[in-house]
From TrEMBL:
Residues 1-21 form the signal peptide. It comes from the Bacteria. This is Tetratricopeptide (TPR) repeat protein. Residues 27-41 have a biased composition (Pro residues).
Length: 217
């Protein structure tokens, strides 16, 4: 649990944390979730700065990055690639959605969780294809103690983007907390298939594998 919770403070191990990510509460269990959304550098307060090449279709931007992440074995370089993926995933392409996401971040920072959740509800209604809306809402549900709704939102994330390693980390952590070790192990293995250089996720797989093997003897 230590790594996942601490990594949601920084939302990526040892990766520089943009202001938007710092406003979110500390949620879900184990390893590295999707790194933070883009920094709040827009002149309009609360609107994330655009990712590089934001005008291109999302898949055209992230497919090469996911391929590079899968090949990369150096943890530091992999974190850099993961952050680029996060910046692209965080770009909604909608000023309204960006503004709501910024308001949600501010509300979460001020511990106004119900207001933050309301803003995120609006995001998922306005643009249900925007994966980070579901991901942030899963985070909020977990922070508010509603694992069932967090799991439901994680399912929405993975339905839209099966490579969302942050959602897989959240899924694995919740399953671990629930004592569903075999399913948690499966989630971590899916995570490592996407992000093999994550040392903490490797350790999580090793520990869960040993625990499961020990329970069988």
């Amino acid at each position: 649990m230590r790594y996942f919770r601490s990594s949601f403070v920084i939302l990526a191990v040892c990766v520089a944390v943009p202001a938007f990510a710092q406003t979110l509460p500390q949620p879900m269990p184990p390893s590295q979730p999707m790194p933070p959304a883009p920094p709040l550098e827009s002149p309009q307060q609360g609107v994330p700065a655009a990712a590089p090449n934001a005008g291109q279709p999302l898949n055209a931007r992230v497919d090469p990055l996911f391929a590079a992440l899968k090949r990369e074995r150096n943890p530091e370089k992999a974190r850099g690639i993961a952050t680029q993926i996060a910046m692209n995933m965080g770009e909604s392409g909608s000023p309204t959605v960006n503004l709501l996401m910024g308001w949600a971040a501010t509300a979460a920072k001020e511990k106004r969780n119900a207001a933050a959740l309301d803003f995120l509800d609006r995001v998922t209604l306005i643009d249900p294809a925007y994966v980070e809306g579901w991901n942030r809402r899963a985070t909020m549900h977990y922070a508010m103690g509603d694992q069932r709704k967090a799991m439901a939102d994680i399912a929405e994330v993975l339905k839209r983007e099966p490579r969302h390693f942050g959602a897989l980390a959240g899924l694995a952590g919740i399953l671990t907390e629930a004592g569903r070790d075999s399913q948690a192990l499966n989630a971590w293995e899916r995570y490592l298939d996407i992000y093999p250089a994550d040392r903490e996720a490797q350790e999580a797989v090793t520990k869960l594998s040993e625990k499961i093997a020990g329970n069988r003897t």
